[in-house]
Amino acid sequence: DAAVTQKPRYLIKMKGQEAEMKCIPEKGHTAVFWYQQKQSKELKFLIYFQNQQPLDQIDMVKERFSAVCPSSSLCSLGIRTCEAEDSALYLCSSSQGYEQYFGPGTRLTVL
Amino acid sequence: AQKVTQTQTSISVVEKTTVTMDCVYETRDSSYFLFWYKQTASGEIVFLIRQDSYKKENATVGHYSLNFQKPKSSIGLIITATQIEDSAVYFCAMREMSNYNVLYFGSGTKLTVEP
Predict the structure, then answer these.
(1) In this model, does residue B1 exceed pLDDT 70?
(2) Is A102 in contact with B42 (Cβ distance < 8 A)?
(3) In this complex, which of A42, A100, A107 lies closest to B43 when CB atoms are compared?
(4) Beta strand pairing status for A106-110 and A31-37?
């Protein structure tokens, strides 16, 4: 079982609705990452937190997403207004060294 | 430009045989890290094995081993004695020291192990 936890596993939203997904990093890990994966293709980097501070993110996240890590044990990724193209698997990973360890993902479907 | 390239979209093998999956990468860094991950049918991504660029020895973990050819910027994954449960999508990834927070992924190779 993944040491990184993500909830919910499945999320269904209508276009225009807000979506929120949560991640509990592995205990002791100070780096948290979010990725988007569509149709089992390559993972697309979204945002990176180090010690709960966002240090790097892509433009799409700045424009339409909200991401915070209010504590070392909880992070969240939100989409302010869901669009059909946001349908994807959202993966959270955490790291304390070289490797990143992934959670099981939240599969978002936007109808 | 794609930093990590996996040209094999899918491979099918018979169980108990050996399979090699290819991966080439592009970097100007002298120090970098290469990884292989496995994504199961449920979507879960599992870390398998890592190769540090400064190490000449090929990494080995269980029935996974790497064929690191630095002059060719190549990092192949070798799975020996394949099992049905090895069926998954395998991703190659790279992390550069100059951009440490970004993990570049390839597009994945789907492995099917048949009885």
Answers:
(1) no
(2) no
(3) A107
(4) unpaired
- CB-based contact A99 B43, cutoff 8 Å: no
Q: Report residue A48 as tokens.
A: 């990176």
The tokens of B51 are what? 């190769």
Tell me which chain B residues have a C-beta less than 8 angstroms from the C-beta of A104: 42-44
HEC letters along B54-87 = CCCCCCEECCEEEEEEHHHCEEEEEECCCCHHHC
**Is residue A54 predicted with pLDDT exceeding 60?**
yes
Distance, CA of A5 to chain centre: 11
Q: What are phi and psi of A10, to 5 degrees?
A: -130, 140
Structure-token pair, residue B8: 């094999």
Comparing CA positions, the residue from A76, A38, A34, A25 lying closest to residue A55 is A34
Extract the tokens encoding B55. 């190490």
- Which tokens hold the place of B96? 């550069």
Give the side-chain half-sphere CA count within 13 A for A54.
17
pLDDT at B74: 97
Tell me, what's the pLDDT at A2? 55
Judge contact between B27 and B20, C-beta under 8 A: no
Question: In the 8-state DSSP scheme, what is residue A26?
Answer: P
Q: Is A9 left (phi over 0), alpha (psi -120 to 50) or beta?
A: alpha
Residue B52 tokens read as 């540090």
Quote the tokens at residue A19: 């979506």
φ/ψ (deg, to 5) at A22: -120, 155
Nearest CA distance, A36 vs chain B (angstrom): 12
Residues in chain B: 115
